[in-house]
Amino acid sequence: MCVECENPDRSGYLERLRDGVADRGWLVQGVESGGSYPPWAYTIGLSGYGLPELVVTGLPVPEAAGLLNDLAAHSLHDSPPSPGERVPLRSGMVIEAVPLAEPSAHLIFAVALYGSEIRALQLVHADSQGRFPWSADYRDGRGGQPVLGARHGD
């Protein structure tokens, strides 16, 4: 889980986040798996550029951070993926962008810095067979990647 998420006094952590975003443009906040919840991660700072924050669920935090950093850099130099857009990555992974229904429910520290009206896109990743979580046979029925919004057109 996220130690800082459980801390009632977040003021020092929020200040470190502000400084990190000012230095680097964005940061990635990882949340380790806990109980029935898989790991997930999200960006903090893209809102300051008028862009949606990016979220990944169901990947180990280091892998999610790499994906988020790559897509955040791309978003700043070009644009983020559009809702419903499928993007093949150099790694061989394919992602689809899904807008979050309630970003303020999931991106605690991005909301703390930018307000509850932030926007966010989940980078939903296909399994090794190219199947997405909305397919019954995703990961051979094992699941493990919650989708936090409705697909474009659903």
From TrEMBL:
InterPro entries associated with the record: DUF4262
Please state what the protein is called. Answer: DUF4262 domain-containing protein
